[in-house]
Each structure stands twice: as C-alpha cells, then as structure tokens.
Amino acid sequence: MSQELIDAITDMREDDALEITDSLLETNTDPLAILDDCRKAMEIIGQRFEEGDCFVPELILAGEMLKEISVKVKPLIQEQTGTAKKLGKIVFGTVEGDIHDIAKDIVAFMLDINGFEVYDLGVDVPPARFVEKVQETGATVVGLSGFLTLAYDPMKETVAALKAADLPDVKVMIGGGQIDDQIRVYTGADAYGRDAMTAVSLAKQWIGGQ
Amino acid sequence: MFNAPENWKKLTAQEKRDARFASWMAPDLEFATPDAAQAYKQRIQMIKDATDLKKPERVPVLPWIGVYPTTYGGITAQEAMYDYEKLGTAFRKFNADFLPDGLASAALMGPGKVFDMLDYKIYHWPGHGTPVDTSYQCVEGEYMMADEYDQLINDPSGYFMRTYLPRAFGALAPWQMLGPFTDIIELPFVGLGMIPVGIPPVQEAFKTYLEAGQAVMEWISAVGPIDGASIATLGLPNIIGSFSKAPFDIIGDTMRGTRAIMLDMYRRPDKLLEAMDRLVPIAVEMGVRYATVSDTPMVFIPLHKGADGFMSNKDFQKFYWPTLKAVLLGLIENGTVPYLFVEGGYNQRLDIITDPDIPAGSTIWLFDHTDMKEAKKKLGGWACFGGNVPGSMMKAGTPQDIENYVKELIDGVAQDGGYILANGAVLDDTNPENLHALIDTGKKYGVYK
Fold first, then answer.
1. Is ipTM > 0.85 here?
2. Which is nearest to B440 in space by CA: B425, B415, B421?
C-alpha cells in the first residue's frame, strides 16, 4: 500500500498522484496494489463528501485522477483477477425528456464506490428501457434522476411501467433538484433522496436487508 | 427606452434608481383604461416599496413563469416558439386570467425559427431534442477549451466571434476563418484584412446571420404587441427587461460546462479567476444597457453553480462570490436593481451574500430551497427577498396546501415588508387551481395593515 498515493489523491494533488503512480510502476509495484490504493482513496473522498467536507469539484477531479491512473496501470495487469463481489445491482438513469446528468453521475459514483453494481442508462431514458434493463440484469433497485419539474410525469410513468411489467421485488428511488416527498407520493416511487448519501443508504437498506 | 437626465453622472446610486423607477412607472404607452394605468403604477409602487425595504400596500406577487402559459392556453411550448399568433393568444389569456403583479412575457419563449436557422448547438428546445410540451434544456459540453482562457481574457469579443459562436451555432462555424477586426488599422491592411470575409463559406454564414436577424425582427414585432396589449389592458408591468449573470455561471453554464469549470478550479485556478474578473464589466454593461433600452430597472440574474452542495463555502468565497459581488455593485452603482433568482439551496451561503459592502435595499433575492426563516433572519433589513413556494407542491399539491403554505410564508417572514411572494422553481408544470391559489392567496392575505 502506498500511503503517499492515497494522500495525493485525497488531497487533490493531481500532478503528484500521477508522478507517484509512475514511480511506483517503475519500481515494479503490483499494478493491482495501485488500483487498490485508488479504491481506498475514493472511499475516503466518498466519506468526506458524505460528511460535507468535499463537494462536486473534488468528486469530479477524483474521478479524473482515477481515470488517468487506470490508463497507466491497466495495460500492465496480466490477467484479470475476479472482481470484488458486488452488494447488488442497481439500474440508474435520468428519466425521459430530461438531459441532465451531473447529479446522476455523482449518485452513480457514490453507489459504485459503496460496492453496488450500477447500470447507468444515461439521460433521456424512456420507461421501457428501464424495464428492459431490470429484466436483463435482474437488478432489484431502480434509481430515477431528474433535474427539472418536467421530470415529474416521466418518473410517474416509469414507476407505472415497472409495476406493469410485474417486477414486484424491484424498489424505486427518485432524486433531483425538485424532488421531495410530495413527488414521491405523486410518482408512486418507494423513496426519494435529496442527496447521493440518501441513495447509498436506501440501497443498503433495500439490498441485503440492512 | 430610459432617458437619463443631464445630471446623471452627479446622481447617487439611490437617485439613479429612483429615476429609473420613475421612468418605468411612466411608460410611453397608451393604457386601455384609467384603471389599467392606475393598476400599473400601483404594482410598480409595491415593487419599489418592497425593494426599498418598506411595507408596500400589499405583498407583490411575482410568480416566475416558464412554459405553463402554453399548457394553460392549450398549445405546446413548441407551437409557442414558432407560431406567434398562438403564442399571443396563450400569453394574453394567461395574463388576463391570473393577473399576477408582473407580466408573464411572451418574449421569454424565444424564436424557434432563429435557433433553427443558426443551428444552435448548446440547447435542446421543445420539439428539437426535448418534448414539445416542456422547457428548453442546456446541453452540457466544453464549448470553450481549457487552453483558451488567454484568448478569452485578451479579447473577449474576438474570442466570442471567432471561436465560441462558431461552436455554439453550426451556421456560424465558418466565422472561425475570420481575422480579428483589430487587423484593420491602416489603408494597406484593409484589403488583406478583409480577405476572410470573401471566402464563400464565410459569406454564406453572414447571409444566414442576416436572415436570422430578419427572422428576429419578425418575432419581436409579433411579440412586442402581445406583451404590449397585456401591459396596456391589464396594467401588468414587465419585470424582466434586462438580465445578466454571475461570471462563474457565464463560464460554467454554456462555455466550459460544469465538469470542466470544476476541474479548472484545481487545474488552472488563476486563469479562471482572471477570466471571471475580465467578464465583470461585460456583465455589468449588459445588465445596464438592457435596463436602459427596456426601461425597467430590474436586472434578472439566475444563480446556478454556486448553490449549496456544488462547492465548499471556502471555494464559494474564492471563485463564485467576488465577481458576482462586483457585478452586483456595478449594477447598483448604475441605478439598476439586481433581481436574483437563486436556484437550489443557499442555506450555507446566507452569511456570505449578506455582504456589508452591498447597500441595504438595493437587491432582490428570490430563493428556492432556502429556509425562509433563516433568510428573513439574515436578509431582513438588508435586502428584499421571497420565493420558495415549492415546484413539487405547485404540481402535486392541492390549492389548500398552497394557500396554507403562502399564509405561513406571509405570517412568518413578510410582516416587516421587503418581501415578494414567488414560487421557487420556474413554473412549467402546475394546474390552474394551484396557480390561482398562489396568486389569489398572496393578494388577499398579503395586504399590509
């Protein structure tokens, strides 16, 4: 483990993090160990985000650093070892008619570093695609994102489509700038969240019965 | 058009503002009835009193309206952007039926034909990337590249003309081939300097540009009378004649995009700060100029990327606030009133924005998810504020819910004046009963005794 690399990432020192990665690779550090340090760093950043100590710029920069380090490290990994077991599957996307993705990406990122397998369908996703993806993956949680009030009706339609597809074990969470309990009731979703942390705790509650 | 008095330069900011309000109150317009004329004056007086932190006759009711008038009028948002007759029928009906204290302006829908002609890339609009019955949406992207800060800083207009606009509008892409106007400084340089203008694709781009200008004239000569009729017959003042933006949002919304500007905060903070400084006088000049041309003192400023959760308070104080504050001070100095539409939550920012350098009674803050009791505590006696009736309730609540919410706001935070009743999020989706509940409760219950 390289505490130096973890610190560089969590302190948002991008240049240092990349240099440290280079020198670790030059000294024949196991590439998988480097990726493991990245994962630890991401967990710390996720925690800080939860505690209100870091914000969107830090999440975006951390994501960039992770991408840059992966580009250096991944070609050196000989064989893929089995990936870590995921807690559960979540289908995620911004509902039909809405093209906003910043908040959706943050929630997907937080779910991912908390151990969930996230199938991100992107933006402007029609109800039928959510249904198909749930059927294909066997996911038990669906997350619907929407930035504007125009997302209310597509969210409602998506919840209805999931119900109509007879997927009784699937739970739906909704979130976004204009979402509150009144809209949860309106759309028929199981829960709503004001922030990414709520999404994580809901997912933990729903998957694995915690 | 606001005609500044001869002694303009000698006036204080407050005197300038009073002059702008007086001119706004006495428009060059024939009212249909004496009642309409009086209602118009009364409404502006209420807004002025609220701005001045006094108790007006009653709480001004200024819902911030999006595409809802189209739904209400039985047309789509797409039709409203292309068929100006339908646009007019819908907006006139909306204003007449709801009678808010400020006009719901048909101009805010925008001319769809012009966006089509120019091949506008930065937005999707009804029927052009987004559903026909919902609002326009921004397409996040890097329309300005990371290594272009110096170009923007050195020559903002040149950068816009030759780099930014060619990316923002497909039809103007050939403008990339233009040289800077500043080449043309001496006789022998004129011929050479003009060469790019003759290149066929550039000529084609200018032709489209001129045609789009013509289409804009068709649009504004249709839309002007639509709004004019509502003002003249109903006495509804147009509130939004001018606009500006926080420099961080100018760069973050439609130039660098959210992701890129947030990376810039780490990767090239000095360039970002320098560019935002450079945009301050530009943002001030734009707000003042539109206020003068439209003869309305209000300068609408939507706030986006400084909301709670977007960045730390430390970064807000470093990146967002200083240049926004400079824009506000510049607007105030010129007698205009920054009319801030504070999207998202500002609960963490209230101590910062209530900056003692900003004179009391010179700004208006309409909030969305900000705690109004806290806002009252912090802004009371310093700035007019309002907003906050939730978009969710406007959509999914009952008229009774809304009436209760409005009464609670008025009882809780409006008692000392300096308050405007408004919804929190742009009103795209509601029903007539709920909107009546908002406006009518405000009017009935908001009378100051």
1. yes
2. B421
